[in-house]
Amino acid sequence: MTDDIDAPGVRVWTVPLDRPPATVAALSRILSEPEAERGDRCRFENDRRRFIVAHGALRLILAGCLDVPPEELRLERGRHGKPWLAGSSDLGFSLSHSGEHALVAVSRQREVGVDVDRLRPGLPVQSFAERFFPASDARFVAAAAGPTERAERFLRLWTRKEAVVKAAGARLAQGLGLKVLRDAESDAESDADVVRDPSGQIPGAWSVRDLPVPNGCRAALAVAGAVAPRISGPHSVDEL
Question: How far is Cα 167 from Cα 199, in angstroms, rounded to an integer?
């Protein structure tokens, strides 16, 4: 799985997480002790298996990019949980998983964040948006035709905010007030938007765009800088 990633670009992989027991067992053997312990803390067995596959796939992808054995990678976590590679300063990456789907994004010399989440109709998304999101975001959610579209609009905003937070290594609370659509009053799909935090809590500019994912999910990618990077993928990791 060796891959050359050019400095301005980002490569994205999709990872289906429901795998046979033999695959889960093989991937569990390349996890670090802290990763294995985090997996063991999952309340449900299905969640534990998906955690193992997601983090094992991340190790395989990073090992392919660096041409090293996956079990030798030293992954550390920052103050707010942002992962980074010890001994490698130019490879930025991000992992997100929800339900049976995971996304991995990797970039050289640019911080990157990815987020995927499942649609959950019935949640009180409008009241949450009114309380925590900018007014234009709340109006965008409220203008939906019904509960399902309202949940879809909320999730589009949520994954974009989460992607920026993950890329910046910030706290989620710092990202709720970000305006992450060029025009939140419109439901038009924008290729990429430049996001800046007016409060200054998340410094710099971030290029944010939606990613194609299966129906019932939403996903977004955020990359440091005001210039949108070249995106390769999502590529499917269907052979682990």
Answer: 17
pTM of the predicted model over 0.85: yes
- pLDDT, tens only, 96-118: 999 899 999 999 888 999 999 99
Query: What CATH superfamily is the domain 10-110?
Result: 4'-phosphopantetheinyl transferase domain (3.90.470.20)
Measured CA to CA, the distance from residue 230 to residue 163 in angstroms comes to: 17
Sheet with strand 112-118: strands edge to edge: 112-118, 217-224, 205-210, 193-196
Contact 86, 51 (CB under 8 A): no
C-alpha atoms less than 13 angstroms from C-alpha of 129 in its C-beta half-sphere: 26
Q: What is the CATH number of domain 116-227?
A: 3.90.470
Residues forming beta bridges with residue 116, ordered by sequence position: 219
Phi, psi of 108 (to 5 degrees): -95, 130
